[in-house]
Amino acid sequence: MDMLAAVEGSVSTIGYGLAAIGPGVGVGIVIGKTIEGTARQPEMAGALRGNMFLGIALIEALALIGIATPFFLP
């Protein structure tokens, strides 16, 4: 029985590790596209930066949901 509890803890840790890949890739894409857009139209840098930070905040909210979910689900 003790072995099962150890496996469940490990599975939730691995699950969050896998869940963190998505937001990490998403943030990388958002930042990369913002840099690309700024290079193409430097006059839009301010607007792109604001949209980038909003996008990063939404992506990181998904990461926070991913880290909180294993604590609420049995």
UniProtKB/TrEMBL annotation:
It is found in: Cell membrane. The chain crosses the membrane at residues 13-31, 52-73. Residues 14-69 form the V-ATPase proteolipid subunit C-like domain. Its main location: membrane. GO terms for molecular function: lipid binding; proton-transporting ATP synthase activity, rotational mechanism. The record marks 60 as: Reversibly protonated during proton transport. Coiled coil: none annotated. InterPro entries: ATP_synth_csu_bac/chlpt (IPR005953), ATP_synth_F0_csu (IPR000454), ATP_synth_F0_csu_DDCD_BS (IPR020537), ATP_synth_F0_csu_sf (IPR038662), ATPase_proteolipid_c-like_dom (IPR002379), F/V-ATP_Csub_sf (IPR035921). It is a multi-pass membrane protein. It holds the Pfam family ATP-synt_C. One of its GO terms (cellular component) is proton-transporting two-sector ATPase complex, proton-transporting domain. Keywords: ATP synthesis, Cell membrane, CF(0), Hydrogen ion transport, Ion transport, Lipid-binding, Membrane, Transmembrane, Transmembrane helix, Transport. Key component of the F(0) channel; it plays a direct role in translocation across the membrane. A homomeric c-ring of between 10-14 subunits forms the central stalk rotor element with the F(1) delta and epsilon subunits. NCBIfam families: ATP_synt_c, PRK06876.1. Belongs to the ATPase C chain family. This is ATP synthase subunit c. It comes from Brevibacterium linens. The lineage of its organism: Bacteria, Bacillati, Actinomycetota, Actinomycetes, Micrococcales.
